[in-house]
Amino acid sequence: MESLSERRVNESAKIYDRTGQVLLDDLSDATVRTSVPLGNISRHIKNATIAIEDSEFYSHLGIKPTAIVRAVLSNLLIALHLSDGYTQGGSTITQQVVKNSLLTTEKLLSRKLKEWVLSLRLEKVLTKDQILELYLNSAPYGGRIYGSEEATEAFFGKKASQVSLAEAAYLAALPQAPTYYSPYGNHRESLESRKNLVLEKMLENEFITEVEYAEAKSEEVTFREKSLSSIKAPHFVFFVEEYLANKYGEEFLTRGGIKIITSLDAELQAKGEDIVKRYALQNETKFNAKNAALVAIDEKTGGILTMVGSRDYFDEDIQGAFNAALGKRQPGSAFKPFVYATALNRGYTPETVVFDVSTEFSARCTSDSKTINENGDPEKDCYRPVNYDGVFHGPVTFRSALAQSLNIPSVKVLYLAGIPESLETARDMGISTLVDPNLYGLTLVLGGGEVTLLDITSAYGTFGNDGVRVVPNPIIRIENSKGEVLLEGRPETKQTISPQIARTVSDMLSDETARSPSFGERSYLYFPGREVAVKTGTTNDYRDAWIVGYTPSVSIGAWAGNNDNTPMEKKVAGFIVAPLWNAFVQEVLRATPAEAFVRPEAIDGYDNLKPVLRGIWQGNTVFRIDTRTGSPATVGTPKQFTEERVATEVHSILHWVSRTDPRGAIPDNPTEDSQYENWEAGVQKWLSSNAPAQVVIPTLPEETRTEFSPLKLTLSGFDPGILYNQSSSIPISVSGSGPFPLKKVSLFLNGLLVESDETKPFSIIFLPTRFQELKNKNILDIVGEDSDGNTSSISSTLLLNLGN
Questions:
Q1: In this predicted model, what pLDDT tens digit does every residue of 526-556 receive, in sequence order?
Q2: Secondary-structure percent of the chain, ordered helix, strand, coil, rounded to 5
Q3: What's the maximum distance between 2 C-alpha atoms anywhere in the chain?
Q4: Rounded Cα gap, residues 746 and 753, in angstroms
C-alpha cells in the first residue's frame, strides 16, 4: 500500500522565465502528502467522493463494462480517422488509484488495458475500504497538495476527520480538475456549481437528508490563505498551470523532470509588480481604488511578458489571489477602437464628420426623449448619452472623437459601423467574451460588454502588428529531463483586419495633437520622442478604469478598481490608472529600441469623396474659386490660388450617406433610416445657436470667366540623342511661353534636385563629374514656374559614357 501511494511523488514540472534561468515555480518542491487511516477521514469526505466519482464503487469489480465498451469504440473511431482524440471518462475509483500511482499519462489503448487488468487485480488483493483509503490519501487537490488530510489542512486548517459537509463537498469537487476548480483561481463560480453538484449527488444517493443538503448548500465556507512564499509571479504561474492543464490535461504537470520555459520577462515582471503595488496603494487613498492589474504582450509572438493580477497576491483584504487580468469587467471607452476600425473598414475615413450634439438614440422615443408609446417609460425606453465632461463639441471628425474619447459621436460611429460587425471585429482581434450580438445595444461602444485585461491588451496588439492577430501564449518551449524539446510554443497568427485599417487606427490613437484638447499637452499618454498609441476607458458607474496602449512591438494594458466591484471616486482613467501605466511603459521603452508606426497610405480618390467624409460639415455641394478674383476657378487656375468652398446646407451625416455604403450615392429618402429624425433634430437645434456664415455658389456670366493658358517650357542647348562623356560640360537653356513670364527653373537628375535658377536667361551648366549616382541612361526633369504661380515640367533623357 505504501509503495502504491508514493510511486509517483515528486515527478513534477519546473517553470522558468523566458531565459530558462530564473525559476518561477518548482511543482515538486514541498509536495505534501500525509497518509491517514480511513477511520480518520470524515464520512462526509468518503460519501462526497463516492457520490461524485463512482457511485457504484462498493458493487463493481474495479471496472465498469460500459466504460470499457466506450473506450474501445473511441479508439476504433480514432483508428478509422473518425475522431481526433481518445476521450477518457467514467473511470472508477479503483482505476484512478492505479492511474495515479503506477501508470504513465499517455492516452493509449495499451495503457488503458493495463489499467483495467491492474484494477481487477487490485480488487482481489485489497478490500474496498483499503482502495478508498488509498484514493483519499493520493488524490490530487491542486498544486503540491495530495490526499485529503493535507487538503483539509491546506484549505480549512482542519484534520480530515473534522470537516463539515459543505467543506467535504468542496473537497470532492476538486480532483476532476484541481487546477481549474482551485479555490484560489479565477473559477470560483464553477467551483461553487460543482460543489452543489456533489451535494445533489449525495442527496440522490441518500448519503444526506434534504435538511442537510439545504444547510450545506447555503453554508459559507472560508478557505485559508494560500502559502506561496517560494513562487515568483504567482498569478502568471497559476495561469500557466491552468493553460497547460486545459491544453494537455491535468496530469501533464506531473510528468517527470519537464522544464517549462515561459514567455515571462522576469525583470520586467518584477518592475511591473512594484509599480502596480506602489500606485494601487496611492489610488486607494486618492480614489478608493484598492486594486490594479497589468499585462504586457509581445505583439509578434503573443508571448506574455508581464502579468500582474493584483497589487499583492497575498492580500486577502482585496482578494489579491484573484487574477484581475483574467476577470471579466466592462471596459468603458477602451472598447471604442474596435468600433472605429469597423467603420473605417466600411468606407468611412478618419476625417468623417459627425455631430457631437444632444441626441436621442432610441427609435422608441422622440427627439426630445418622450416615448412614442403612451404607456412607455422614458427612463427605460430612451437613451440620451452625455460626454464625460458634459460638454457638446458640435461637428467633430472621427479622429478627434476617438482621440478625445467623446461618447455621443462614438455611439453614432457604432450605429454607422453596425453592432454585429463591430462585435465580429472585436472577436476576430481577440475579444473572446462578447458572443451574442442580441445582448448588446448602442451602449456597446461605451463598454457595455465585459472583457478581460488579457484579451483587450492582446487585441490592441493586433493594431500594432499591422492587423495580424497573434493568440496570447505563455509558453516558449517545454523540455524533458535530457534537454530535448517536447513542445514549442509557436505563434498562432491570423490577418484579421487590413494593414491599412490597423495603421489608420494606430495613427489616430497616437495623435498627440488630436487628444490634447481633452487630455492636455504632454499628459501621461505622451512619451517624448517615442510613438505610443493609447486609449483610456472609464465605466459610467466608476467601477473600472482602463488604459490600453501599444508600441509597434509591445502592447500594454492596465486596470484599476476594486475586486468586490465597489465604485471608485468619480475620476476618469486618465487620473486613476494612467500614471501607473505610464510608469510601466517607460520601463518597456527603456528596454526596446525606438520604433515608428507605419503610416497609412493616402486614400485613392480622396479629393472626390463626399465632403462629409473629408472633414467638411457645412454641406455637400462643393465648388472652387480663384482667390485672386473671387470668381469660379478654372482648369488653368494655379492650385495655390484655388480654394474649395461648400454651399451652406447643414444636416447630419445620415442626410448624405447610406450608413452601410458611405461612398455610394446620396440616399434618395434619408428619412427611411430609423435614426435620421432624431439625429437631424439634434443637429438643427445646435444649428439654431451656432449658424455658420452662409456660403452660396457664385453665379457669374460665362464670359467673365477667364481661361488661363498653361505655361509651356522649351528646352535648348542640350541634345538627348548625344552620348556625353562624364567630364562634359552640358549647357541646358529653358524658355517659357504663356500669359505670365517665367520666374524660376529647377533641374532634377533621376528625381533629385540639382540646381535652381531665378535669373534670366534661364541657363544651367550641368557638370556630371559633380555627381556620384550616375547611370548610362539618366532622366532629366526641368520644372518651371511663372510669376502667377503656374507650373509646368518637361522631361528628357541624358546619355552618359561612364566607361563600364
A1: 999 999 999 999 988 899 999 999 999 999 9
A2: 35, 20, 45
A3: 116
A4: 7
CA-to-CA distance for 321 and 273, rounded, in angstroms?
14
Please report, to the nearest 10 degrees, the dihedral formed by the alpha carbons of residues 23, 24, 26, 32 taken in order.
140
d(CA 593, CA 783): 41
Residue given cell 473629408 in the structure block: 614
SS3 114: helix
Task: Enumerate residue ranges in the chain where pLDDT < 50.
Answer: 1-2, 5-10, 78-89, 700-707
Distance from C-alpha of 457 to C-alpha of 347, rounded to nearest angstrom:
26
Q: Which helix (H) or strand (E) holds 299?
A: none
DSSP annotation of 272: H
End-to-end CA distance of the chain: 90
pLDDT value for 298: 97
- Determine which helix (DSSP H) or strand (DSSP E) holds 134, and give its type and residue range: helix 128-138
Residue type, 726: Q
Pairing of β 291-298 and β 304-308: antiparallel
> What distance in Å separates the CA atoms of residue 192 and residue 324, rounded to the nearest whole number?
19
b/e code 473-510 from CB counts within 10 Å (16+ = b): bbbbebbeeeeeeebebeeeeeebbeebbbbbbbbbbb
The CA-based angle 607-613-614, given to 5 degrees, is 50
Angle between helices 210-218 and 188-204 (to 10 degrees): 170
Cell of 403: 482621440
Relative to beta strand 145-146, strand 32-33 is parallel
Residue 227 CA: distances (Å) to CA of 186, 221, 250, 595, 700: 17, 18, 21, 42, 87
Instruction: Tell me how far apart the alpha carbons of residues 434 and 424 are, in angstroms, rounded to a whole number.
Output: 9
User: With contact defined as beta carbons under 8 Å apart, do 175 and 141 qualify?
Assistant: yes
From the CB of residue 37, how many other CB atoms can be counted at a distance below 10 Å?
10
Q: How far is CA 686 from CA 412, 646, 690, in A?
A: 16, 19, 6
Nearest to 47 by CA among 206, 156, 154: 206
In the chain, the domains with their CATH numbers are 30-229 (1.10.3810.10), 606-704 (no CATH), 712-801 (2.60.40.10)
CA 696-698-702 angle, to 5 degrees, is: 155
* Helix (H/G/I), strand (E/B), else coil: 281: helix
Helix (H, G, I), strand (E, B) or coil at 764: strand
Strand boundaries in 93-209, DSSP class E: 140-142, 145-146
Q: What is the reported pLDDT for 620?
A: 92
Rounded to 5 degrees, what are φ and ψ at 747? -110, 130
Task: State the Cα–Cα distance between residues 277 and 795, nearest whole angstrom.
Answer: 67
Decide: 223 and 185 in contact? Cβ < 8 Å. Answer: no
Q: How many residues does the chain have?
A: 804
**What sign for the dihedral angle of Cα 648, 652, 654, 659?**
positive
3-state secondary structure of 145: strand
3-state SS assignment for residue 297:
strand
**In DSSP terms, which residues pair with 319 in a beta bridge?**
none
What pTM was computed for the model? 0.77
The answer to whether the CB of 731 falls within 8 A of the CB of 765 is: yes
What does the DSSP assignment read for 501-554? Answer: HHHHHHHHHT-HHHHHHHH-TT-TT--TTS--EEEEEE-TTSSEEEEEEE-SSE
Residue 641 C-alpha from the chain's centroid: 46
Pull the grid cell for residue 707: 481661361
Enter the C-alpha cell of residue 379. Answer: 427612463
Which stretch of DSSP H or E encloses residue 353?
A: strand 353-356
Candidates 78, 49, 325; CA nearest to 198 is 49
Cell of 305: 511578458
Burial string for 181-214 (b: 16+ CB within 10 Å, else e) reads bbbbbbbeeebbebbbebbebbbeeebbeeebbe
pLDDT in tens, 451-502: 999 999 999 999 999 999 999 999 999 998 888 898 898 999 999 999 999 9
